[in-house]
Amino acid sequence: MMIEDLITPDSVLCNANARSKKRCLEILSELLIRSVPDISGDDIFESLIDRERLGCTSLEQGVAFPHCRVEGLNKSVAALVKLSEAVDFDAPDDEPVDLVFALAVPSDPDSERQVDISRIAEQLRDPQLRARLREAKTSRELYDALCA
Predict the structure, then answer these.
(1) Mean pLDDT for each 10-residue chunk of the chain (148 residues)?
(2) pLDDT at residue 116 in the model
(3) Active-site residue among 45, 52, 67, 136?
(4) Residue 57's domain is classified under what CATH number?
(5) Tens digits of residue pLDDT in 24-38
(6) Which structural domain, as residue segments, surrounds residue 7?
(7) Is-catalytic flag, 45?
(8) Of 24, 43, 66, 119, which sits most exposed with the smallest number of CB within 10 A?
């Protein structure tokens, strides 16, 4: 599955203001429900928070990849935020995070819908992709940089 199969331009936000990891996850939850309006943003937020409690989802180098399973979700959806100011994400390298890609998957995904989380994480670790994302000035430019 390609990243552009998971994310829409409406689920991308450039220069978002979040002063904490919690606020960042709230923003991502709001973006994720745009693709699945029948799911509660609170349910997605709680799932993201629960996943963070299991361990930090920072990929280091200023990038985080929070992901979770959500009850009632029938397709995988993603959102991307570029923060106007980096926030502490409890990263192993102690670097603040300015790029956050979130993924919500069905709680019981079948083989056809299963998303390769490790492949997405590998893409987000690519220095050229990170540079393109950081150069984006608008949400549309951010989306285009992600999907290029």
Answers:
(1) 88 96 96 91 94 90 94 91 95 94 84 69 94 97 95
(2) 76
(3) 67
(4) 3.40.930.10
(5) 999 999 999 998 988
(6) 3-147
(7) no
(8) 119
